[in-house]
TrEMBL record:
Single GO cellular component term: plasma membrane
Quaternary organization: Homodimer and heterodimers.
Chief site of localization: membrane
Casparian strip membrane protein domain sequence ranges: 1-133
Subcellular location: Cell membrane
Signal peptide (residue range): none
Family membership noted in the UniProt record: Belongs to the Casparian strip membrane proteins (CASP) family.
Species whose genome carries this gene: Dichanthelium oligosanthes
UniProt keyword annotation of Ion transport present: no
Ranges that cross the membrane: 38-57, 77-103
Keyword Ribosomal protein among record annotations: no
Keywords, alphabetical: Cell membrane, Membrane, Transmembrane, Transmembrane helix
Protein name: CASP-like protein
Amino acid sequence: MALALTSAVVMATASECTIYGLHGAKTTVTFKNYPPFVYMAVFNIAATILEAAAIYLQVGKGDDDDDDGAPKLSRVVLVAIDVVVQALLSSATGAVFSAVVAYGPQISACSGTAGRFCEQVSRAKFISLAASISASSSGFAKDVQLPFSVWPMSSDDC
């Protein structure tokens, strides 16, 4: 959740960059000039909100153990949120990586003395990748039985 939010904030605060072309023509660009960057910022914020809702459902609501075997609504919603978050983060990250390749010359023109735009795009891209990997890993880790417990155990459980 924190990685997705950080990536969105870094991208949304990408500083303006002024590119000077031939004959003194100048162009000012921000992340809003590139639809995949806007897509990433919006989808990472949406993933952050969904993860906050999932944390609330997991921790805040508690989990009453019923023996009837029927899945509770909160468990079904948690699975749906996990899938949607992974889809949002993966597609947003893929879009940004593709955009960096497609718009490479324009983005590279904003490196160095022209501004921090290129560096912020690069940081946001890799933070978004880390968020995507983290979401996928957490979804995998929840479904895999571990030979040890990661939760603190009371003395009664030993």
